[in-house]
Structure formats: structure tokens, C-alpha cells
């Protein structure tokens, strides 16, 4: 019987999403238990080298927990998402990967203001994602980040259009999109700046292909993000994260994640099916 350890995300990395983040990893754990896996859980701040499992389902983001999980990988443990992929989900790395690989990122210059976002880690408070209406506000916001000790900041132009959230599990065929303004959930309410969604048509297959390609470049299997769909159907990916809460498609996502885990379990270290 394979042992699974769920590593819960620390609250500081889960602003306004603690219950939803816990719910998706628990949903996967329940499905695995039904399939005969031995499942336990631990908060990431309590994870230690003494914790032993065959499979680690992790939403952790702290350097301390990722260091432990990296050692578990080196010892042959299966870690989902892989630690290198989680580290690569820092916003500045994502922005660079998109621009160097021809993926649709937000422009650097524009006429409708700017977004400044913490680049070294995912947003932990509303201060980590700031809108600036003009160049002067942009400079002031940059100074505010530096005063907080944050020097890695990604600044991009605001894009007018519909905010569309996407969720996927790489290589399983699972991919869902939702217009952000159609739901009641929002971490910080920043989507309101784009107004009520107009439901512009866009090529969901192209977005899926771009998201899967980005997930492969980053090195994560379980992912989510945001894009802005313009009136003409083109889009810009403005956010990309490891293991989101899947709050609006949790049951389907849990099934896909479980399938992904089973795929890993049925593949030996050489990449061959057992």
C-alpha cells in the first residue's frame, strides 16, 4: 500500500483562500483513499525530514518545506508539483519564460495604466498587486515595493477585456475556463477594474495549448492562471500559479489529479510502464 502525504499550504501563501486550498487537496486525498492509498496530512510549517511517504501532494511554497521535499525527490519520492516547478512559479520567472518562448504576455507599455506585482513570490496581500493609473503612480508604487524590501517587481501594462481564469492538470485533458466576473469569488477584487465581462469569443483550444506549454516550461503538472481576452479574441496571460484551489471545478479537478498520480505510480524510474 503506497503512502501519500498531503502538505497543506501555509495561510500566508493562501490569502482569502485557506478553506478552498485545503478542500482541493483533501478531495484528492479522499479519492486516493478509496483506491487503497494510505493518506495523511501535515501543514507545511510542520513538514520535516522525518516525514516519510511514497507520494507527496504539496501546496507548500516556503523555502524550508521545499528544501525538505527536494530531498524527498532525490530519495525517489514522487512530489506533485515538483519542487523546481514550484520555485519557477515566481512571477518574474513566469514573465521571462513567456516572453522568451513567444507566449502571449501582457505588453510592457500601454495607454490604460500599469500593474505592478511582486516578482519574487506569489501575492500574499493586496499590497503585492498594485494598479497604477499613470507613469507617476507607477514610480510611486515601485518605491513602495522597495521600501518593503521587495526589489523583484514585474510591471506590465493594463489590458482591457474580459478576465478569464483557467485551470488544468497537464497531460490529462482536464482544462477549464471561467469568466472571473461571473462568479462571486475573488482574492483581492482586482478583476473589477476590467468591468462586467462581455464574454468575448476566444479560441479555448489555443489557450489550453499555451497553458500546457507554459506548464511544461515551468515544470508543474497542476496549475491555474488568469488571462485577459480582448474584444478581438486575442488574449494575454497575466498570472500563472502552481496548484490553485479549483474552487469552481473542484470535483472534476480532483479526479484529473488522481489520474495523474496513478500515471506516476504506474511508471518506473526509467519512464517505462510497469
What general outline do the C-alpha atoms trace? globular
The count of strands amounts to: 11
Query: What is the N-to-C order of secondary-structure elements (H for helix, E for strand)?
Result: EHEEHEHHEEHEEEHEEH
Overall mean pLDDT score? Answer: 91
Account of the 3D structure:
- The chain has 274 residues and is an alpha/beta fold.
- Helix content is 32%, strand content 23%.
- It has seven helices and eleven strands.
- The protein has helices at residues 18-34, 63-74, 83-87, 91-100, 135-147, 204-218, 250-265; strands at 3-8, 38-43, 55-58, 78-80, 114-118, 129-132, 153-157, 162-169, 174-179, 222-229, 235-242.
- A hairpin with a 4-residue loop joins strand 8 and strand 9.
- Helix 1 packs across helix 7 (250-265).
- The longest helix is centred in the N-terminal third of the chain and has 17 residues, at 18-34.
- The relative contact order is 0.16.
- The model is unreliable at 268-274 (pLDDT under 50).
Structure summarized in a few sentences:
The protein is α/β, with parallel strands linked by helices and 274 residues long. 32% of the residues lie in helices and 23% in strands.
Amino acid at each position: 500500500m503506497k503512502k501519500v502525504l498531503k502538505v497543506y499550504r501555509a495561510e500566508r501563501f493562501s490569502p482569502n483562500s485557506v478553506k478552498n486550498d485545503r478542500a482541493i487537496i483533501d478531495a484528492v486525498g479522499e479519492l486516493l483513499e478509496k483506491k487503497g492509498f494510505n493518506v495523511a496530512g501535515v501543514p507545511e510549517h510542520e513538514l520535516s525530514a522525518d516525514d516519510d511517504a511514497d507520494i507527496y501532494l504539496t501546496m507548500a511554497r516556503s523555502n524550508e518545506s521545499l528544501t525538505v521535499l527536494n530531498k524527498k525527490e532525490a530519495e525517489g519520492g514522487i512530489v506533485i508539483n515538483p519542487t523546481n516547478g514550484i520555485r519557477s512559479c515566481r512571477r518574474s520567472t513566469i514573465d521571462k519564460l513567456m516572453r522568451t518562448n513567444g507566449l502571449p504576455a501582457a505588453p510592457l507599455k500601454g495607454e490604460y495604466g500599469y500593474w505592478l506585482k511582486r516578482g519574487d513570490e506569489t501575492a500574499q496581500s493586496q499590497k503585492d498587486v498594485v494598479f497604477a493609473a499613470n507613469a507617476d503612480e507607477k514610480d510611486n508604487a515601485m518605491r513602495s515595493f522597495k521600501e518593503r524590501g521587495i526589489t523583484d517587481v514585474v510591471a506590465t501594462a493594463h489590458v482591457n477585456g474580459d478576465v478569464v481564469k483557467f485551470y488544468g492538470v497537464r497531460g490529462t485533458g482536464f482544462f477549464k475556463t471561467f469568466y472571473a466576473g461571473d462568479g462571486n469569488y475573488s482574492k483581492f477584487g482586482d478583476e473589477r477594474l476590467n468591468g462586467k465581462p462581455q464574454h468575448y469569443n476566444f479560441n479555448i483550444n489555443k489557450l489550453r495549448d499555451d497553458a500546457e506549454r507554459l506548464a511544461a516550461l515551468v515544470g508543474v503538472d497542476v496549475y491555474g492562471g488568469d488571462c485577459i481576452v480582448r474584444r478581438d479574441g486575442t488574449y494575454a496571460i497575466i498570472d500563472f500559479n502552481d496548484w490553485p484551489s479549483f474552487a469552481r471545478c473542484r470535483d472534476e479537478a480532483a479526479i484529473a489529479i488522481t489520474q495523474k498520480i496513478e500515471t506516476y505510480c504506474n511508471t518506473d524510474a526509467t519512464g517505462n510502464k510497469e
